[in-house]
Amino acid sequence: MKRFVVAALVTIGGLAVSSLAGAQTAGDVPTFSKDVAPIFFKNCTSCHRPGEIAPMSLLTYKDARPYARSIATQVSKGTMPPWHADPAHGEFLNDRRLSGSEKDTILRWVQGGALEGDAGQMPPPPVYPDGWQIGLPDTVFALPEAYPVPASGTIDYKYFEVPTNFAEDRWVQAFQVRPGTPSVVHHVIVYARPPKRPQPPASNDAGGQAPPQRREGPFAFAPNMDEPDSVKNAAARQDTPNDRPAPEAGLGGFVGGFAPGQGVRVFQPGSALKVPAGSTLIFQIHYTANGKATTDRSVIGFVFAKEPPKQEVITAALVNANFTLPAGAANTRVDAEMTLNRDVTLWSLLPHTHVRGRRWEIQVTYPDGRNDVVLAVPQYDFNWQTDYIFKEPLKLPKGTTLRSSAWYDNSSANRSNPDPSIDVHWGEQTWEEMQFTAFTFTLDPQRPATSGAQQ
């Protein structure tokens, strides 16, 4: 992690902030317009602006000035901008950390009185077309209705079907999922279910076509984004029927998602995600009642690739749904692993637990026995989910094992723990738990088989 050196600490209203050796002269004091606004525009305002997840806007001096001390506190602690990966393991394209000089500028701005400076030195504010971080989408799909969310109670996952009416396969270069009412949307996952293809008739004619073969997956254990059978069975036994249950026709492949801190993905040039012609989008939404009845109409926006990509991005999940977190246990480890039976390129990892999750570590063991920690999250934060996108995607040859490890605190020392007196298992709701890692990858070209004569 980059660090900046300070010569002393001073206190402003009980807040410790950095000070350079010696007093700052008037010319040395950073101002919002010239020095701080460019940092906020680059690192903060995608969330800190009207209508987004952050509690206040940082687009203008008037917006930011009342929160100067709080900003300094969060910056000095490293909690803002939020980033939880250990820099000792891997480099990531979407690393949100401030540089040492950027931190120092913000802290000296607060120490110097949080001055506005010459408003004429303000850079142009960033432009978010109609609130979109991916630019103006080529198409937007919304829930078919404004769904009523009750003021209280446990709310089952809701599923909404939205036809795309795509006449041909479409390649998604970027997506953004926007909750209609963020205060009650815990998460959104969007799937694309292709239409059923008619099976060709069986033929005894030697010249007849054989039915299409299922494409071989890259895993010895085939992961998916579906719910474990135990969760589905429990849902079927509920006394109150779900008015928007999971569709009997299935969900299809993962397309995009939203959780606090994560709702946007831009795929690298030459790669894109396929949405087959005629697909139906399935929105899976987890609502959390907040004491006030409201409605929600969440949306997903797509930016399409200008041409078919060289590589198809696929999203899958590494899951362990068979675990017990004993009541009161402060440090239970749960592992999941899979072995690849194809050469793949790994582009990103998104680890997910609920409020008892405390840290993560993801390792790869190569066929030659080498072992690397490719992602470590020593202080996992349920309230801020991150899809960690590798700066250099990982080449994982056939035979590589991908292993995830999550640690949980089910003790009373965990202030987020809703009930440390019970054993906890896999479940959809926040007071239950998950051990789930979504990842994106592409399949590498298969190497030609070596004949016996060549051996």
* Binned strand content: 25-35%
Helix content: 10-25%
* CATH topology call of the largest domain: Jelly Rolls
Oligomeric state of the chains in view: single chain
CATH class of the largest domain: Mainly Beta
Q: What order do the helices and strands follow?
A: EEHHHHEEEEEHEEEEEEEEEEEEEE
Main beta-sheet strand count, sense and barrel state: 9 strands, mixed
Low-pLDDT residue spans: 1-23, 202-228, 234-238
Radius of gyration: 25 Å
- Quickly give the structural class: mainly beta
Q: Give the second-level CATH assignment, the architecture of the largest domain.
A: Sandwich
> Residue-averaged pLDDT, rounded?
84
Number of domains: 2
CA-CA gap between termini: 48 Å
Annotation, overall tally of beta strands: 21
Shape: globular
Number of helices: 5
Give a concise summary.
The protein has 5 helices and 21 strands. It is mainly beta. It has 2 domains: 8-126, no CATH class; 139-195 and 219-443, Jelly Rolls (Sandwich).
